[in-house]
């Protein structure tokens, strides 16, 4: 187990190094002044330019520059935005939790709807309800996320006027930014109308969550259904039936775990897709997350911001993927180091 | 009354355009305390019979039978719960491939303990119960001849050698102290020492616990050592059944004879390097089943009448299903419906097994 852990940590460190190296190289490819691209500050005088060059070690060799970049990066000094001149670290720390929040809602829906529905429809496969689920999952999976979001806005916000169209919460509520997660912030903010604020935030969250989670839920349904159908035909399930165990006992003890083990890594990989989708949907719903923020940065050709934002998203997806892979690998008992060697 | 009574068990498989009879009129009984062997080559439907008995066939396969009873209770008319109760306590199965019949993600100890019925655990508190379960499981493993119980109980199925997992399967089957043990090809691919151990174990259980065993196999040597009676299947049809002794001595059906002839050990007169006998051709696939007696195209003395399914006849408890049984040549000739086809010289067939004839002369 420790060996396995070290192996995954090693993988992570090397990939992070490669990512950081890539992000270090980016300003050299961007158009415009290298110094502005790196620092985000357009020098107004020669002294300022020289001071900046000295700070980023631009006159030294490339290795020294990289070293300076690394130490700045890990110190949390990610430069400033070339447009707003705000500290990028603070900006990202402000925007990122919102994305994470949206992603978690969608993941929650996908897990607690997709997996149970997948199990049910796989266990009762080939009956009309199952066919309905399969049809729904194919249709749902085929929707482009941004289109679905626009349809939801047209339908529920503009036509029916049931739900709010943009943002995380109405501006009336003075929610302070503490953790970045809106519900926690509402509770921590100590408002006099906490209940209304929570309800309002919830109504805001419904449409973005739905438009992201439908695709992922359908995917979860399809994987789970397929997997449980395969497992139910396995010899050990027939053997368990022949031993006269109850259906429930067989499901809990034998099919559930065995059906989840092969699909967990696949499901975990979907989280990166979820992040991407969340970023797209944020733009449409003006959700104050990193996706929205990055798109703004791209519009304004804010190169330091693009660099930092991309690096953060990439690091997040990477950490998540490797951690989940490690967990799924660690709980799978059939992949033990001590396999019996055939003599 | 027979413990397990199967009469005319037919298994329909609805394919595109046609319905295939995967099993056709399989008939046999299993008496209390009997070891019955179900013989047939691969594809003859042995495993299907087992699955029909335990109810593990896919839902769209239709099972029909005049009788499929356990202690007089009709298994086909039972609801799921009743059948589950019988499977829980009365009938146990040891499956063909032991490693795939064990859950790969659960430790073996847990799986064995799971198959112990709750009634056997008499202690009150859960820690005592767990301990008792473990003791029972250990006892079971000792019973089937596994000494390193701790080691195997803490391992996962993929860590087991094949013979140990076969023994563990038997231990799990015995956990509920069943009346019938169905052993589906339990000795396949085992080396002879392990095989002997397993056979000895089965025989011992049969003697001491009066356990009825349905021993499904194609290993004729193993069968003749332990079984009391034999039922031969060919391609989903019951071909012949009877006491092992009488079947070995006087096989009435050409297929049984061919099956016995194919085992050199039964032929003591066989000289070194003399050609071995075997039926030509292979067992037909389910899509291309011949009409009537399914041995027809491969049978050395098939005639026109063989396109009809022969009815099961019985001579002193020895049942056969053939229009032209061996050793009883006259029965065929007397039949007035026999046609000109028979006048053409039927293919010469060694009617009497010389080895067995010699044996009987010694008697």
TrEMBL record, chain A:
Domain ABC transmembrane type-1: 96-324
GO cellular component terms, A-Z: plasma membrane
Transmembrane intervals: 9-30, 102-121, 133-156, 205-224, 259-285, 305-327
The keyword Lipid biosynthesis belongs to this UniProt entry's keyword annotation: no
Pfam families linked: BPD_transp_1 (PF00528)
GO MF annotation list: dipeptide transmembrane transporter activity
Topology relative to the membrane: Multi-pass membrane protein
Xref: Gene3D superfamilies: MetI-like
Broad class of where this protein is predominantly found: membrane
Subcellular locations according to the entry: Cell inner membrane; Cell membrane
Keywords: Cell inner membrane, Cell membrane, Membrane, Transmembrane, Transmembrane helix, Transport
UniProt similarity note: Belongs to the binding-protein-dependent transport system permease family. OppBC subfamily.
Stated name of the protein: Peptide transport system permease protein sapB
Lineage: Bacteria, Pseudomonadati, Pseudomonadota, Gammaproteobacteria, Alteromonadales
Gene: sapB
Automatic annotation (TrEMBL), chain B:
A GO term for molecular function: ATP binding
Gene that encodes it: sapD
One Pfam family it belongs to: oligo_HPY
Biological processes, Gene Ontology terms: peptide transport
Membrane disposition: Peripheral membrane protein
Domain ABC transporter: residue ranges: 4-260
Native source species: Glaciecola punicea ACAM 611
Statement: the UniProt record of this protein carries the keyword DNA-binding: no
Cellular component, GO annotation: plasma membrane
Subcellular location field: Cell inner membrane
Principal location: membrane
Keywords: ATP-binding, Cell inner membrane, Cell membrane, Membrane, Nucleotide-binding, Transport
Annotated InterPro entries: AAA+_ATPase, ABC_Ni/Peptide_Import, ABC_transporter-like_ATP-bd, Oligopep_ABC_C, P-loop_NTPase
Family to which the UniProt record says this protein belongs: Belongs to the ABC transporter superfamily.
Protein's recorded name: Peptide transport system ATP-binding protein sapD
Domain of life the protein comes from: Bacteria
Keyword Ubl conjugation: no
